[in-house]
Structures are given as structure tokens and as C-alpha cells.
Amino acid sequence: MGKFSMNTAIVFDLDGTLVDSIGDLAGAANRMLADAGRDPLQLDVIKRFVGNGLPKLVERVLQHCDLPMDRHNELTQLTLSHYNAAASDTTVPYPGVPEALSYLLASGCVLGVCTNKPEAPARHVLDALNLSQYFDVVLGGDTLKTRKPDPAHLIASFEALPRHNKRLFVGDSEVDAETSVRAEIPFLLFTEGYRKSPVAEIPNQVSYRSAAELPALVERLSQEQ
Questions:
Q1: Helix or strand run (H / E) with residue 114
Q2: Beta carbons of 222 and 4 less than 8 angstroms apart
Q3: Which of 15, 56, 118, 199 has the fewest Cβ atoms within 10 Å of its own Cβ atom?
Q4: Are 133 and 193 in the same domain?
Q5: Which domain-ending residue is among 85, 120, 136?
Q6: Could you tell me if 146 and 197 lie in one domain?
């Protein structure tokens, strides 16, 4: 493969795209439920609640467990406290992610992260997994007054990156796809993350199953812009 232009900026979602974090997210949610006197939920149940940020995850857990919604703020903070205490215990990068990021960076791309996870635990996870070195920008779900699927969250991530004129967004979910459509930015869909719909129902320019595919896909899409 040839080298990319320095004009290519790539922003990544975090959970379900760069890292598999469902174990730690579920652990925090279940510790909150234990504090509330409820039984834990299965991993696959909590996985369905991921994608719109921690407050929405907690809201869905409360609805599922028939807990009063007037405790939402309290239990969201409790879940966040549990999560901050163990945000990287079982979280790992998806196979090939560090190698793909290293190649993209060495090829002249500039890279950022746009996640609905709060910024502090997002940065902690990136630091703990030795991924921070690849990114110039990390915008979390509480960095701005808005979050995905509001396109302003994604656009601000690109605008905070070094100068560029080509943009690509990489994510795994319906939320990410909606954000890219609204921001009018080409979208690469990782199919092995936390999506809830069939791949064919999620708008994308290309989809991929392994991070090893990313360099070639990015090169192709960059040349098409």
C-alpha cells in the first residue's frame, strides 16, 4: 500500500470499535444493581444497552429492572464511580487495533477519538491499554454540552485535529452511523462491536470485520474524496 496524505483525518468511536469494554461496563452496572438490592443482569442484556453514553445505559438498566426513574441521577453517579474504579480490568483492544493505528499514524493520518463515554474514563482506558499515543484529540460524552448522535460532537472532534481536508469516521453502532450521516462524513462500520441491527440496515461506506483491513480501506476511501 502507498502512503496516505497528511490531509486525512480519522476519528474513531471507542467502545465496541477500538476496545471491547463490555465486561467492565457490565461490572459497574451490576455493582450498582447490587447496591440497589437487585440481582445482576447477564452480559448480553447489558450489551444491548450500550451506545448512547453512561446515563442512557443506566436509564435502560433501571427500566429493565423496574427501578424508579427518580433515582436516575443518583444511580448514574454510583455506576460511574464503580466504573472509574475498574474501567480497564477486563477491557482489551480488539485484535489488530494497535498495529492498524500505528500504520495509519506512520502513513500521515491524524487520529482522534469521539466517544459517548465520559472523557476521564475514556482517557484512562486509552492510557491503560497504551493507545493514547496514537490520538491527538479525545472528546468524551461530557466534553461538550452535546454528544453523538448530535453531529456537533463529531465535527468538533475533527475541528480539534491538526489541519486536514479529508475526513473519515470509524464506529460500530447505529448511533455512530446516524452521527456520520448527519455530519455528512464517510463512515466505516466495524461489524464485530455492539451494533443491534443487521449490517445491511446500518448506513456505511464500507464495513469491516478485522482491524487488519483498516489501512487498505482508509487508503481507498481517502482517494475517493
A1: strand 110-114
A2: yes
A3: 199
A4: yes
A5: 85
A6: yes
For residue 185 the three cell numbers come to: 462524513
Asked whether the beta carbons of 17 and 179 are under 8 A apart, the reply is no
pLDDT by position in tens, the chain (length 225): 555 555 799 999 999 999 999 999 999 999 999 999 999 999 999 999 987 888 999 999 999 999 999 999 999 999 999 999 998 999 999 999 999 999 999 999 999 999 999 999 999 999 999 999 999 999 999 999 999 999 999 999 999 999 888 999 999 999 999 999 999 999 999 999 999 999 999 999 999 999 999 999 999 998 887
Residue 143 to residue 158: CA distance in whole angstroms: 14
Answer whether 188's CB lies under 8 Å from 170's CB: yes
Which of 192, 221, 191 has the alpha carbon at shortest distance from 205? 221
Residue 71, C-alpha cell as written in the block: 433515582
Residue 2, in any domain of the structure:
no
* Parallel, antiparallel or unpaired: strands 166-171 and 206-208: unpaired
Q: Mapped to the 3 state alphabet, what secondary structure does 191-210 carry?
A: CCCCCCCCHHHCCCCEEECC
CA dist., res. 149 & res. 143, Å (int): 14
pTM over 0.90: yes
Q: Which triple of cell numbers denotes residue 95?
A: 485484535
Q: Are 116 and 80 in contact (CB under 8 A)?
A: no
Active site residues: 13
Question: Domain with 79 in it: what CATH number?
Answer: 1.10.150.240
